[in-house]
Amino acid sequence: MSDFLKVLVDIMSQPAILVALIALIGLIAQRKKLSDTLKGTTKTFVGFLVISAGAGILSAALAPFGEMFKAAFHVTGVVPNNEAIVAIALTDYGTNTALIMFFGMMVNILIARFTKFKYIFLTGHHTLYMACMLAVIMTVAGFTSVPLIMAGAVALGIIMSLSPAIVQPFMRILTGNDNVALGHFSAVGYAVSGLVGKAVAGKNPKSTEKINFPKGLGFLRDSTVSIALTMMVIYVVVALFAGPSYVEANLSSGTNYIVFAMIQAGTFAAGVFIILSGVRLVLAEIVPAFKGISERLVPNAKPALDVPIIYPYAPNAVLIGFFSSFVGGIFSMVIMTFTGGVIILPGVVPHFFTGAAAGVFGNATGGVRGAVLGAFVNGILISFLPVFLMPVLGNLGFANSTFSDTDFGVSGIFFGVLANHGGTIAIVVSLIVILAVMFGLSVKRKKNKALEEEV
Amino acid sequence: MRILAVCGSGLGTSFMVEMNINQVLTELGVTDVEVSHSDLSSATPDSADVFFLAKDIAEGGESLGEVIVLDSIIDMDELRAKVTAVVRDKGLI
Predict the structure, then answer these.
(1) HSE on the CB side for B29, CA within 13 Å?
(2) Which of B12, B56, B60 sits opposite A305 (nearest CB)?
């Protein structure tokens, strides 16, 4: 009997098998054909192993970078990149991540069903990354086994429902309707950018779209290209500062230090490329199942979708936002060199995707000035939030990468600080209070509706 | 026939377009079409017969072959019209 139990535990503690089982449940629930079920389950299983493989490649490229940075500047340099940190974290937190993701999606559907927060968060890769971060934070906070999964899942469900809610007022201004929401865990940065836009609008703000702008930066959309190019610049600059003697003696076993830096930078991009392929395979079955189940259970659900859906509304603001956010990142990096401690290097990918969106929202509320200043503030946010997030991530805080988007920072710091002051109890109480407030708001609205109908 | 939805990172937006295309095909009763999604770097001309791209990355996908550009990624009516035109063009309905 105990042998059988051991096999069962071994199965459940292999995250690749676990996500495959989750996909299997989803496929069976949708009554798919046997061949499709087999295909989907296998792909999910392999996908998870692809992520692990990518993590190995990426870690190997990040390690020498950290060494070079320390040798050059005597402080730690960190490149925020969700894919990198998640892939590294999944080696230790994979099982908990998979379970938190699965039950967190359920909580998201329940909240949408029973409160006025009708958002179904469909950006699967962000759900996975947030589940991963919560698995780490809840572990560091002191949770274990079932309570860990429960706390993580409730927290994830709440974040999946609140993140779109924060941006929705600005989505309404932008799209002119209330049908579609934004599902991207940078909502705090976008809302702040929208508010900044409002504050600096003045009279008759001029829209960014009235500017004639050269095109030709579209290639930055291609994440492999932009990661590879920027990492090459960053790696080569750091290698130059570290000096040929140090690099060739300690890291590259004699290979020319510039060549070594270029290859490591390219390897970093290759690692991200592989991880993303794995993420795509893992999500391929889980997201449609989640969407199908939510459509059946939640009347008038609002889908919360990935951030590029808003780019076509203001293509110029996308470019202006990216530049302003990146400048905000460089500005923050300079400040950090004076204050000591870790240095957060501006990554092109987070600044591009979140800066662009911050620019679009800033433009919607405050024209060109709103786009520039709103995205600049977003750039500062995604530089400084990771600094405060790293201490609550336990051992993961010592990696040379971390989570990049604002909502990871805000929710991570929130739960991390609670845990530091009141342990697991404080987190449980906070989750109950947040849920109660969300329900309370919904009940009140129902009463108001009833009153209106009586009048 | 194979259709590929493409976006910058190949994660969220193209996935949503893929699911929506599948929904339209189901509505039309078209069965033998394989729909998938990918990022711009991985998409090659031989990976599908027809490519669906959002307007903002259209210039990056010009070399793919038969490209359908979506003005609004979230507009189901536009997608329905364009998918219907494609399957009619291929003689599937």
Answers:
(1) 1
(2) B12
